[in-house]
Sequence to fold (430 residues):
Amino acid sequence: MKLVALCCILVSMAPLSDRVSPRAAGVAGERPAQELTADSRVQRALELLKDSAGATTEEQIRITEIPAPPFHEEKRAAYLRKLLGDAGLRVESDSAGNVIGELPGANANDVVLVTAHLDTVFPEGTDVHVRRDGTRLLAPGISDNGTGLASLVAVARAMRDAQIRTRSSIWFVADVGEEGEGNLRGMHALMDAYRSRLKSVIALDGSATDYVSTGAIASHRIEVVITGPGGHSWSDFGAPNPIYALGRAITKFSETHLPDNPRTTFNIGEIEGGTSVNAIPQRAAMKVDLRSESESELPILERDLRAAVQAGVDEEMAEARARNAAAGRAPLQISVSVLGIRPGGQLPPDSPLLAVVNDADRVLGNRSRVDRSSTDANLPLSVGIPAISIGCGGSSAGAHTTGEWYDPTGRELGLQRTFLIVLGAAGLAP
Fold:
């Protein structure tokens, strides 16, 4: 079907945003997507995105093969700075390391922020070479967030080549610190500097087009460290062992009862400790991710974690005393620190931004549902700024594992959807 004909299409379905009231679309004050696609510039941009899907995939491969481990996104940031500059944007980098490409609008103080995070969860030294298996591309970070970064550039290029002008300014941002202990540091910097100017935030993250994240999952990241006197595995056998205490704590915490509603989860993602197979360790540590749809559940879960750790230490000390190996030795010590906090939030169901998503889906014949996730959208949602997170097309699986893969088949739908959502949020200028 020719994209030019999209302006005449109305798909008979009931997607998520049919739940959005007609009043919401009117509040936005912007032209609906069906009307936008009648504009020759918009038709041109849609055609460009379709025709450049293959080139976008090749760019995604190049981006993915530039390592961006946590807190070390500099090389990838430099490459994105070049790409966004070549796309005709005014580009600068801030003190946090974010790369900001500006497409000026009629109102410079009214900004639609479009972000894609630079960082991956994988440590320095991870092999990020992209392998092909049929239509699939395999590499750590190929979808999360190679897809978002490549799409960020593709949409900016299409707007330049189609000579799109918007009412609000659009900032295309490749930001740092979205993953793990990065604690959204890139988005924190953007919010601190530009919060009063932000009309809405659209985070490009991954591939899925069958949902839009309108709810922000709250999370606490906790590090637990247990220390002790240590010793020799033979001569000091029976002395209190931090790893044993940590193991007891993990067993107890893994049995914690969680509510079904609101959905609440935990994950022990890292464990480390010890120096030698024949040495009783002086230190053992774990990093724990606590998440919930309701922020009020997280202090309860954190309390349960602390209680499990204390119980694990108490049991290990009791065992050491029973083995007559605790006398004259320092007891085990516990240190608990918060590595990061992500606030929760929710986009109202009658939000104009959600109406824009619905409108784009209807014109493109896409069906999507509202969902929750933990992304760059968390921070703006937590302070009442309209924000969403969307995927950019294709399919993927295995995120946050070395077996991650991405299939670009059908990615043009995601690119066109992203473009129409961004344009709908910013408004087309004459």
